[in-house]
Amino acid sequence: MSGARRSVWGLALSLHHLHHHPHHHPHRHLSVGIVGAPFSKGQARPGVEGGPDRIRTAGLLEGLQQLGCEVKDYGNLTFEDVADETALGRLKSVRAVGGANQRLSAAVKVAKQDGHTAVVLGGDHSLAIGSIHGHSAAVGPLSVMWVDAHADVNTPLTSETGNLHGQPLSYLLHELQSKVPALPNFSWLKPCVSARDVVYVGLRDVDPAEHYILKLLGMKVFSMSQVDQLGIARVMEESCDYLCSRAKKPIHLSYDIDAIDPSVTPATGTPVVGGLTYREGVYIAEHLSQTGLLSAVDLVEVNPLRGPTDGAVQSTASTAVHVLLGCFGRLREGNHLPDYRLPDP
User: Fold this and answer.
1) Got the DSSP string for 110-154?
2) C-alpha–C-alpha distance, residues 116 and 32, integer Å
């Protein structure tokens, strides 16, 4: 392609972005409600319960305030300790996961009803069950962007590990309701998302059953192969156009830190090589912020016990903070508050 044609194509993409995303409000007032969910029973590795506090201490609240956001930190939820829980077949910690997500659903619903963009700090990715359920309970139908190395759409009967952090979407999708058996502490949960309202970005470690489900339901997937082929800007353009093609629903971003390459974010439980770069990971957040539709965010699977050094843990937590700040308008070109004025001498 010639330089002239590339320039025309770039201009067309820019105009396409402006036309399709009229909700860009660079200085809109944002109110953020943070809910810490120090929960680890959706998987087997200890330490991920330390994620919420490590993300906070990496500068999340201060960064949000510097962007002009009002911040309400609801603190960390406490979860009932289900001692000596018997496994149900291969499924592990079912009662604990069900109870924790019921509590999280109620907390996210409160944060939304209080007028905030909800931010859930995990904890493992099984928490998306309660986070998305509570979000939908407060605002109605949602679009979901799932940024992850893994599809997390195994059903309880297809899961090879029995870990519920690899299953959350199967509990939330209307289309899979008939494939999910009744489970203890899950009677409160009703599916609340349609498969056509979900976009995946970053997949690169997908189980055969999950691959079958994605194809069966015709779900929109941008694996790392598509990110390589198209580039992250095109992936995000197409993702947002797809999510907005029927109706501009509120967007729920569920972001597993393992979507980013472990060279950047090593302190996580199931790292997979070949992931998003730091720049790509942050760009996703920046682009979603500009739609004006982002209504809730999960940032999960930061595990301070999995980093080989404290520097590795700090890199992981700092990247999580940078992703979240991107969700709320931080731009790498720089920001200033709308009422900023140069001081007089």
Assistant:
1) HHHHTTPEEEEEES-GGGHHHHHHHHHHHH-S-EEEEESSS----
2) 5
Q: Which residue in 256, 261, 280, 298 is the catalytic one?
A: 256
The pair of structure tokens assigned to 97 is 């996961």
Q: Does the annotation mark 211 as catalytic?
A: no
Active site residue 207: no
Chunked into runs of 10 residues, the chain (345 residues) has average pLDDT values of 42 42 51 98 96 98 97 97 78 96 98 98 98 98 98 97 97 98 96 98 98 98 98 98 94 98 98 98 98 98 96 98 98 93 96
Residue tagged active-site, from 116, 133, 135, 165: 165
Active site annotation includes 310: no
Q: In terms of pTM, does the model score above 0.90?
A: yes
133 tagged catalytic: no
Catalytic hit among 152, 197, 205, 207: 152
Is 241 one of the catalytic residues?
A: no
Alpha helices, H only, the chain:
3-20, 51-57, 60-66, 94-113, 128-139, 168-172, 208-216, 224-230, 232-243, 278-291, 310-327
Question: Which member of 150, 252, 287, 322 is catalytic?
Answer: 150
Question: Where do the domains of the chain lie, and which CATH numbers do they carry?
Answer: 29-327 (3.40.800.10)
